[in-house]
Amino acid sequence: MSLYTLARDGDMERLTDTAKNSDSAAVRRRAAEMLGDVGDPEDDRTVDVLIHLAREDDDDSVRAAAVDGLDELGGNGLERLIAKETGVDPNAADWAAVRAFAKVLGGASIPEYRMAAANALGRMGDEDAVGPLAKRLEDPDPRVRERACLALGRIGDPRVVSRLKARLDDDHPAVKSAAADALGTIASGEALAALLDLLDDENVSLRRLAASALGNASSAKPVPELAGALADEHDTVRRAAVFSIIELLANAPTKQSHAVRDAVVSELKDADDETVTGPLVEILEDATQARQRRNAVWFLGRVTSAEPPEHVLDALVDALDDDDKMTAQFAATSITNLEGLAVESTLIELVNDDDASVDARAKAAYALGDVGGDRAKETLDAITDSDVDKQVRKRAFASLSKLGGVRQ
């Protein structure tokens, strides 16, 4: 039975047995990770197995996974691990625990204990831990440096940005990634500026991380660089860049947003179609901020091929009924940029849908005036003689006039 199945079924007894007794280091490592994901911090057996692996396993990667598993699990597992060798009270008050863990972080000869202390301090989030963690950015063990970076990112203190920037040149990719992740979380101007250079890094994971983190900027300044990332050879980087561009434009001042949007459209058009439209549809469907949805729907109408994929058309048509009136209006105008029988058919179906809202049906009638043909004329002509809402009839009549179908 697979580890995934054991985790899915909550078979913690077999999962802990596998983590402790498997002959494969890769299996023990993955089992330790899963115990952190699905285990119960109140389950002593789970915690005891992870502590055992962190202290006694003969494989570095298993010990590291066990430390991280204890961190993910929560509770006082990390504290119990450190207490095994140091005597730190796992139930100490926060201020006392911070002081004790900082001492372990700086003085423990066993790297797993320094890793555990770094994780614990990051989870506690106390600013008093920033200094001791920053010193561990020079730790001889790269696993400790990695956890120190991540812990500093959790705390989010901008005073350590310069120290984290230095770790972007670390010889170990995991440390470099952790430093970039921390800088993206801190998201100060200096921190994000340091990530711009990573958009050209040879490591695709770092390029993706940088593209994603730059969406946290407080202005639209990174948009040109993100637009350049739309030409990246890896679609994960391109998708991250699209998400960040929308995030930045949603938060940019309106005047600046308009100028940047116009400049970015050509870059979006040059990128692979699905790489751009996929994230835009996701944003349109899932975003909670109206300005994000507005930008997504605006771009969809300008970067989608004339005959749109079905999922793009469906998303735009659904947006005709968006609670935000401007998003709904943008959806209508974006649809008018599209072509094809599918567009006309979908709009006709919506116009005739008695269960759809009046606003959505009216906007569909409006869009038919730009994309419709003979079938649209027949539909709109019938609506003008029906007893549908006045708003729908008015839009139908206006569209019929544009199509040259008004009866004399």
Automatic annotation (TrEMBL):
SUPFAM superfamilies: ARM repeat. InterPro entries: ARM-like (IPR011989), ARM-type_fold (IPR016024), PBS_lyase_HEAT (IPR004155). It holds the Pfam family HEAT_2. This is HEAT repeat domain-containing protein. It comes from Halobaculum roseum. The lineage of its organism: Archaea, Methanobacteriati, Methanobacteriota, Stenosarchaea group, Halobacteria.
